[in-house]
């Protein structure tokens, strides 16, 4: 749940020194750091929708099984896309016509959809990887299967 915020902090720690001190970087590093910079600046777009999603998932997650939490984690990038699309719709509301509103919303939803799904599943993958690693090191107990009575 906190993975995007942690990645945002790391991206700031990488981008701020480069931008503040006008550090010259090679083309290869520029190619690598460009998505990091877009993510760091993109917090303007994703902070509120993701925070709403994270709070909602946190409230929902109480007394849930590991399997339910994993399934919700795999669904959360789609929910994040829906929240970003709602944000895009609100931003486009003062459009001059319904055609302009629809065109802008479709273009932005396509862009936001690709970015939110790629970024969302990257974060979910990182979080699930850390979870599996902690389970393998026995720092997190494996959940016992539920017994059903007949």
Describe the protein's architecture and organization.
- With 150 residues, the chain is mainly α.
- It has helices at 3-20, 27-60, 66-92, 98-136.
- It has one domain.
- Helix 3 runs antiparallel to helix 4 (98-136).
- The radius of gyration is 19 Å and the shape is flat.
- The mean pLDDT is 86.
Q: SSE order, as H and E? A: HHHH
Distance between the termini: 37 Å
- Give the overall silhouette: flat
Roughly what is the average pLDDT, rounded to an integer? Answer: 86
Structural class: mainly alpha
| Rg estimate, integer Å | 19 Å
Number of helices: 4
Largest sheet data: none
Poorly predicted runs of 5 or more residues: none
β-strand percent reads under 5%
Report helical residue fraction: over 70%
Oligomer: single chain
- How many domains in all? 1
Number of strands: 0
Question: Outline of this structure?
Answer:
With 150 residues, the chain is an all-alpha fold. It is built from four helices and no strands. The two termini are 37 Å apart.
Structure characteristics:
4 helices, 0% strand
Secondary structure layout plus pairing:
Elements: H1 3-20, H2 27-60, H3 66-92, H4 98-136
